Amino acid sequence: MALPLSALASDSAGDVAHLIETALTPVFMLSGVGTLLNLLNTRASRVADQIEKASDLLTDEEDSKARHKLQKHFVRLQKRVMVLDMAIMFGGLAGAMTCGAAFVLFLGTVRDASIALWLVGLFGAALLCTIASLASFLGDCFLSWDSLKKVGPLPKSVKKSDGKTA
């Protein structure tokens, strides 16, 4: 049965404060997820810049050995973008589900409804999506480290056949 707002007004200030405190608790997780999304978007932007640079270098490269090395870089960078996109997607889902959990908690308290299953489902899914987002981010880190170890850094410029740099 729904609890009218007039009944909420008759509750003690402590009960209302507890309601707000409880409903705002997931916001702290949302703040962390937002920070994670900012980091992931920044990293994805840097990888996109590297893809653009590798693409430019690839079109200007004449040496087949250097071209092959640049192609390896390009493929690895594309894998990193895919993994970062997954991390961003899971982070966004985690944020949305955290908001859903906070809303259900608040709505359930106001309406005095049974919300435990919804709350556990949404907040649990938010935690799982956050874990998946962090795992995808770790995957990008491993791809980045492996690329640096195996292929080395992306060259700053292409050496022309006459020995000059572009």
Q: What gap, in angstroms, lies between the N and C termini? A: 74 Å
Strand content: under 5%
How many DSSP-defined strands?
0
Total helix count?
4
Indicate the low-confidence ranges by residue numbers: none
Order of helices and strands: HHHH
Q: Radius of gyration over alpha carbons?
A: 25 Å
Biggest sheet details: none
> pLDDT average, as an integer?
79
The helix-and-strand class reads: mainly alpha
Gross geometry = rod-shaped
Helix content: over 70%
Describe this structure in words.
This protein is mainly alpha-helical and 166 residues long. Helix content is 83%, strand content 0%. The protein is built from four helices and no strands. The chain has helices at 5-10, 13-60, 64-111, 116-150. α2 runs antiparallel to α3, α2 (13-60) packs parallel to α4 (116-150) and α3 (64-111) runs antiparallel to α4 (116-150). The chain is rod-shaped and about 75 Å long. The protein starts with a helix and ends in a 16-residue tail after the last helix. The mean pLDDT is 79.
What does this entry show, briefly?
The chain is mainly alpha-helical and 166 residues long.
Layout of helices and strands, plus pairs?
Blueprint lengths: L4 H6 L2 H48 L3 H48 L4 H35 L16
Helix pairs in contact: 2-3, 2-4, 3-4
Looking at this protein, list some descriptive labels.
single chain, 166 residues, mainly alpha, 4 helices, 83% helix, rod-shaped
